[in-house]
Amino acid sequence: MEHALPRAEPSAFHRYADVLLAALVVLIVGMMIVPLPTALLDLLLASNISLAVVLLLVALYARSGLAFASFPTVLLVTTLYRLALNVSSTRLILLQANAGDVIHSFGTFVVRGNYVVGAVIFLILTLIQFIVIAKGSERVAEVGARFTLDAMPGKQMSIDAELRSGAITQDEAQQRRRRVQRESEFFGAMDGAMKFVKGDAIAGIIITLINIAAGLVIGVGMRHLGALESLKVYGLLTIGDGLVSQIPALLISTAAGLVVTRVSSEHDDSSLAGDIARQVLEQPRALAVAGVFLLVLAAIPGLPTIPFVVLGALLLFGARRLRETPPRTTGTDGAPAIPGRQAAAAPLSIPAVVPISVDLGERLATDDHDAIQTALAELPRTLFLELGLPVPSIRTRTNAQLPPYAFTVFVQEIPVGSGDASPRDTQVTPREAVVAHHTARAIRRRAAEFVGLQETQALLDQLERLYPALVRNAVPKPVSLQLLSEVLRRLVDEGVSIRPLREILEALASHAPHEKDPVALTELVRSTLKRHISFRVAQGGVVPVYLLAPEIEEAVRDAIQRTVAGSYLALAPDLAREILTSIKRTCAAHTGHAPNLLTQSDIRRFVRRLIEVDLPDVLVLSYQELAPELTVQPLARVDI
Question: What does pTM read for this prediction?
Answer without folding.
Answer: 0.48
